[in-house]
Amino acid sequence: MDAITIRNLTKKYGDGTVALQNISFSIKKGEFFALLGPNGAGKTTTINILTGLANKTSGDVLLFDQDVVRNYQQARSLVGLVPQEFNLDQFDKVYNTLFFNAGYFGIPRSQRHSKIESLLRELGLWEKRYSKVRELSGGMKRKVMIARALIHEPKILILDEPTAGVDVETRKSLWTYFRRLNQKGTTILLTTHYIEEAEELCQRIAIVHKGNIIALDTKNNLLELLERETIKVVLSEPLSVLPPSLKKYGAAVQHNALLLTINPKQNNFSKLLDDLRKTKLSIRKIETERTTLEDVFLHLTKK
Ligand SMILES: Nc1ncnc2c1ncn2[C@@H]1O[C@H](COP(=O)(O)OP(=O)(O)OP(=O)(O)O)[C@@H](O)[C@H]1O
Ligand SMILES: [Mg+2]
Q1: How far is the CA of 281 from the centre of ligand 2 (A)?
Q2: CATH number listed for the domain at residues 227-292
């Protein structure tokens, strides 16, 4: 059974904005899945519908076999949400925030302390348990929201831009933490516009653009969408005129380097080397640049 099923989901807001246009996809149990897209693509709208914070206009949304509208309570208890916007009570203490949230999910008082302690220790926040939320840094507040989402040990964790405004070191440690949770069996849905984050963590990625899913595949298959490689030829001295034989590689001159592109599937790398040799240019080194998810993203959203 899939952990998340979305079928023909459409969302129109009251002001006429169509945020989601008949999207369908599902996320397997145990998967680490990303919704990647620019601002306004519809990521948060999707998540809000999954967690009952927004009403769908049409379509079906299931968490395991629970319909998020018809079986709201059961569906909601299966998921932990880290929202994009801070929604903690600034005057509440960290410990109490978690204590009350545990109550919301029906965890008996006697079991709350040990759960809170282990979560706060894992996230490096135990020392701050008696601080008011307003006394924490932005990154620490984000971690409190993560702890709050996990207090009832949900089968599905939904992270809406979980590392926005978080420093590089904390981001890396959160990535490790999320990866470990996923390895222990939690299905994770993440939204991000940090392409690096999706690339680093997720097995499959859906690219969302203007309320549509314009691509959905494994990371490697998405990278293959862009079957080209950039080759940088660094020369011993600057070049003023581009050798005509290199024009077919879409060559561009950049100071003392030449940028060329080839399609690796067409296997024309040795031809390129031949052409380069014939130009008699004095070559200092050749570098190849890996296609990144960013290239794929730009390519797809431009289309
Ligand atoms: N409550 C609302 N009322 C009207 N329109 C809304 C509402 N919430 C979102 N929208 C619109 O829906 C579209 C999708 O917004 P959404 O918040 O889902 O995007 P997002 O992909 O999460 O973007 P971001 O990366 O900026 O968080 C946008 O055009 C937005 O203006
Ligand atoms: Mg959003």
Answers
A1: 50
A2: 3.30.70
CATH topology of domain 2-224: Rossmann fold (3.40.50)
The CATH 3.30.70 portion of the chain extends over 227-292
Nearest atom of ligand 1 to the alpha carbon of 46: 18
- Residue span(s) of the chain under CATH 3.40.50.300 come to 2-224
Between the CA of 198 and the centroid of ligand 2 the distance, in Å, is 15
Least confident of 100-104, 189-193, 203-207, 289-293: 289-293
pTM of this structure: 0.84
> Ligand 1 centre from 13 Cα, in Å?
9
Residues with CB under 6 A from ligand 1: 13, 15, 17, 19, 37, 39-45, 84, 193
Integer angstrom CA distances of residue 267 from 234, 262, 297: 22, 8, 24
Across the beta sheet with 257-262, the strand order is 252-254, 257-262, 229-235, 283-289
**Cα 208 to Cα 47: distance, rounded to the nearest angstrom:** 13
pLDDT digits 0-9 by tens, 114-156:
999 999 999 999 999 999 999 999 999 999 999 999 999 999 9
- Collapse the DSSP code of 211 into the 3-class scheme (helix H, G, I; strand E, B; otherwise coil) and give the result: coil
Ligand 1 nearest-atom number relative to CA 45 = 18
